[in-house]
Every structure is written in C-alpha cells, then in structure tokens.
Amino acid sequence: MDFFLTDEQTTYAAHVQQFAEQVLSASAAERMAKSRFDREIWRQAAEMGLTGLPLPEKWGGSGFGALDTMIVVEALGRGCEDMGLVFSLCAHMFACAVPIWRYGSETLHERFLHAVAKGEVIVANAITEPGAGSDVHAMRTTATRDGDHYLLSGEKCFITNAPIADLFLIYAQTAPKHGFFGISGFLISRDTPGLTVTDAGAKTGLNTSPWGTVYLQECRVPMSALVGVEGGGAPMFQDSMVWERGCLFAAYVGAMERVLQQSIRQATDRKQFGRQIGDNQAISNRLVDMKLRIETSRLLLYRAGWLYDHDQPYEEAIALSKLWISECAVQSGLDAIQIFGGTGVTRATGIDRLLLDALPSRVFSGTSEIQREIIARHLGLR
Fold it and tell me: Of the listed 129, 244, 257, 315, which one is catalytic?
C-alpha cells in the first residue's frame, strides 16, 4: 500500500488551498455575517476549475478521478472559511454536473456541459420533497408523457442553489408502479413556463449556500430534456451520490484540519493559572482526539476514492466514510468551542462555524441513519 501523494497532487492541492485562503476567504466573514451568496466569488472559483474537477477535459473539466478530486476538495475546505460556498460548488459539481456528463445525451452535452463544467451556469439538483426525504421513492412529482413532450407537476424542497440556479436537474415519477425503475431525471431551464422558485431563507449552517422550494405546474418540456433513459433516474441519482457522499465530505476533512490548527494556537497562546491551557490534559486530550478524527477520516475517505477509481466494490466504504466524517466534524466542532471557551461562541473568532456547518452533514446526501442501514446491509443484517 502506497500512502504517498504524487508531487503533482500535492502541488495542485497546495495551489488550491492558497487560492482559497487568499481569494475565497478574503470576504468570507462579511458573506457569512449576511448569509449572502456572492456570484463574483463563484466566478473566481469556477475559473480555478472548482466547478468541473471530475468532468472530462473535452467539456472544460479537469478529468480527475475520485481520489484526485477528494484531495483537491480537501484542500479547498482547509483553505476556505466559507463552507457554504464550498457546499454550493460541490452540490453543483457532484449532484448535477456528474450525472449530466455520465448519463446525458450528446444533445445535452453539446448544449450545456461545457458551461456547467466552467460554472458559467449553475445547476440545482431537485429530488427532495416534503414527504420524500430519505424515502426517495415516495416522491409525488410526476412527469406524464404528452406526445413528444413531458408535463411535470409537483413540489421540491430544501433544494441547494435553487434561488441562483440557471438549470434544474428534476427527478420525477414517470411510472409510479415500477418503484426503483419508475423515476426519471430531467434537465430543465429556469425560465420554463410553470416553474417557480421561492427562497427558503437563511440557515444557521452553510449559510452562504442558498436553498429554496421549486414548484412545477404542468411544466411542458421536450423529450430531449430527459437525462439518461426513462426509468433510469434512481440509478443515476445513486451514482451521483457516490461522488457527493465521497468527494464532498473531503471538504470537512480539510475544515477539521483548519480548525485543529486554530485550536492548537489557542491552546498555546491562552494562559490560565500561570501556564498555557494546552498544558492541561483536559485540553491536550481534546486536541489529540481532533487529530485522531482527522487521520481516520482521511484514511476512510481516500480508501473509498481508491476503490471507486479501481472499479472495486465501494458502496460500503463510501457509507463508512460519509458517516464517520460527518460525526467527527460535529464532535470536533464541539471540542473547538470548548477549547476557546466564551470566545468560541462569538462571531469575532468564528470558531463555532465548524459545528454549525457540520450539523447538516449528518442529514444531507443520506442521513447518518441511512448510512448505517447501508453498512448493516453489507454486514448481512438486512
């Protein structure tokens, strides 16, 4: 087993981290204070290639495999204090750009993929509904054939990037009685008649990443809007979740590393009872545990990416990685606040951001409970 990264991998990761620190984090405090998405910052991130890492170079991407993508996203999370921006970039890239690339027709590729890879248009993945969260197959949005068109009707909620999206990847029931094979995906423009979007308002975590509700009232779209084959939406969504559950969570590994370094500085600079607080075992043990969580998270993450890139069974590995990283990020966020004490809950230090940004990670891309169900199935318990 080779645990060394190549010079190319480390150099590019360092370049991305430096860019994230100097450019993306420059006005991060102001954006987060106002819960504001900044399209100009998005544009700069896109010019850096951070909207199309796994997409082929032919379409404007970087052509990275899963592991290389994880390494870059980890560097992004380590350097960028604005995890809402990171989340929006990753949602666009993994939940939208990847399925359009892997399943879309040549027509969709020619029309949209280069602009999607370059971040010139923003895509939102719309699958969650008020009554269909973890139970995706309970969705009620329908797509009914009408000649050479489909009529889409329904409601989608908690849709990341919805208020700023130019395109929507909509999942709908085309054959409700067929269960897993009754769902299809459609790529729909924001200006489609019958499609309306409302802003869901500010969030406590990932608060610069906008979200909203999408309403569909007999939206008439051509058959060419179908992504993949009719009835192929569920497998397509599952494939995109491999990338999202794996690669997106690399950002949390990077964020945990950044917060650990901040906590170490606090432990050495802050003095109580005539000595630095890091001399107290209660503090040093928390720092050791934070370090342990980072290293185990990275090992699980990279292993999952390696398995995927080498066409080995990966579903369990990705579920283990997603579950462990999300839980570790929350606990490390709590530990960081404890180390900083009263200043840990002030806006000035911003050390509470890891906790606030990590809490949703146990819910999105499949809850921690769903990941445990996947792992239990691989243990032969389901």
Answer: 244
